[in-house]
C-alpha cells in the first residue's frame, strides 16, 4: 500500500529520482514491482523538497494520480534539490480529504510519509490517539491513519526525542495496539533520513563516493548497489552513511 522515496545528497532535479528512472515513483504509481498490498497508487501524490538556505521544505501535493499531472512533470524537470521525500498513495476508500491525505506531511523542517495500513482503523488506535493533547488532534491534516501516525511522531519530536527514537517508539506503540499493522515510515529533515521497515519492503542505495543516499519502498532501477533492509528495522541515513538497528517487537 503506497510507495515512497527519500533522497539526500548532491543537488539533482526532482525528476532524476522520481520520473527519469525506469522504475521510479512515476511508474510505481501503476506498475510497482515489489508492492505486496494494493496494485494501483492513484489516490494522490506529493513531493517535498528543500531549497538552499531554507530549512523549511516546499511541498507539491495533488489528489489525483501523478501520471495525470503534466505540471508536475515540468516542475520535476527544472527544480533541483539536495534532499526530497515523495510518495504516491494507494487507491483506497473514498474520502473528503483530497490532497490533504497525500504525503508528505510536514511541520517545520520535517517531512513524513507512511507506507502501510493499520488494521481496525480508527477504533484500534482510539486509546493511542486519546493520549495526544486535544489541540494536536484537532490539527490533523487528514482523517486517516497516516495523519495520526505523523501527529504521534511529531508529539515525540517536540518533546525532545531523537528522530530515530521517535519513529521506533511510535511503531512499537501502534503495533501493540493494532497487531498486524504495516508501518514503513519515512522522515527527513533535509540532511538525514530515518525510516522503518515493519511489514513491507524497504530498500536503500548509497553512492560509493559518499555523494548521495536513496531510501525507497523498492529499487527504481536495476543497479546492483541496492540493498534491502530487514523487517523490524530502523534505518538512519545521511548522504555518506547508512546505519541499521533492530526494533524490538512490542510485548504481547
Describe the structure.
The chain is 23% helix and 29% strand. The protein has 252 residues and is an alpha+beta fold. The protein has a domain at 3-113 and 182-246: Aminohydrolase, N-terminal nucleophile (Ntn) domain (Glutamine Phosphoribosylpyrophosphate, subunit 1, domain 1, 4-Layer Sandwich). The strands form two sheets. The protein has a seven-stranded antiparallel β-sheet. α6 (145-158) packs across α7 (163-177). The longest helix has 15 residues, at 163-177. The mean pLDDT is 95.
Shape: globular
Low-confidence stretches are none
Which secondary-structure class do the elements indicate? alpha+beta
Q: What is the C-level CATH assignment of one domain?
A: Alpha Beta
Please state the average pLDDT score: 95
Helix content: 10-25%
Number of H- or I-type helical stretches: 7
CATH H level of one domain: which superfamily? Aminohydrolase, N-terminal nucleophile (Ntn) domain
State the CATH topology of one domain.
Glutamine Phosphoribosylpyrophosphate, subunit 1, domain 1
Strand content: 25-35%
* Run of helices and strands: EHHEEHEEEHHHHEEEEEEE
Q: State the end-to-end CA separation.
A: 26 Å
Main β sheet profile: 7 strands, antiparallel
Radius of gyration, taken over Cα atoms and rounded to an integer in Å? 17 Å
Strand order of the largest sheet: 3-2-4-1-10-9-11
Number of strands: 13
Supply the CATH architecture of one domain: 4-Layer Sandwich
Oligomerization state: single chain
Amino acid at each position: 500500500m503506497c510507495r515512497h522515496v527519500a533522497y539526500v545528497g548532491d543537488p539533482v532535479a526532482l525528476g532524476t529520482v522520481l520520473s527519469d528512472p525506469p522504475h521510479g515513483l512515476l511508474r510505481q504509481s501503476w506498475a510497482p514491482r515489489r508492492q505486496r498490498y494494493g496494485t494501483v497508487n492513484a489516490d494522490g501524490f506529493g513531493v517535498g523538497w528543500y531549497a538552499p538556505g531554507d530549512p523549511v521544505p516546499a511541498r507539491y501535493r495533488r489528489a489525483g494520480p501523478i501520471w495525470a499531472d503534466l505540471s508536475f512533470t515540468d516542475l520535476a524537470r527544472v527544480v533541483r534539490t539536495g534532499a526530497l521525500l515523495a510518495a504516491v498513495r494507494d487507491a483506497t476508500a473514498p474520502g473528503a480529504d483530497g490532497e490533504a491525505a497525500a504525503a508528505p506531511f510536514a511541520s517545520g523542517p520535517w517531512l513524513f510519509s507512511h507506507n502501510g495500513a493499520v488494521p481496525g482503523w480508527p477504533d484500534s488506535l482510539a486509546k493511542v490517539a486519546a493520549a495526544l493533547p486535544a489541540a494536536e488532534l484537532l490539527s490533523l491534516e487528514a482523517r486517516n491513519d497516516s495523519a495520526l501516525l505523523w501527529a504521534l511522531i511529531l508529539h515525540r519530536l517536540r518533546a525532545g526525542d531523537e528522530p530515530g527514537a521517535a519513529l521506533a517508539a511510535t511503531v512499537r506503540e501502534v503495533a501493540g495496539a493494532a497487531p498486524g499493522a504495516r508501518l514503513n515510515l519515512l522522515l527527513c529533515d533535509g540532511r538525514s533520513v530515518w525510516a522503518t521497515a515493519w511489514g513491507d519492503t524497504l530498500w536503500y542505495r548509497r553512492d560509493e563516493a559518499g555523494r548521495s543516499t536513496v531510501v525507497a519502498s523498492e529499487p527504481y532501477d536495476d543497479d546492483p548497489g541496492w540493498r534491502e533492509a530487514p523487517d523490524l528495522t530502523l534505518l538512519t541515513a545521511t548522504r555518506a552513511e547508512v546505519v541499521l538497528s533492530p526494533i524490538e517487537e512490542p510485548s504481547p
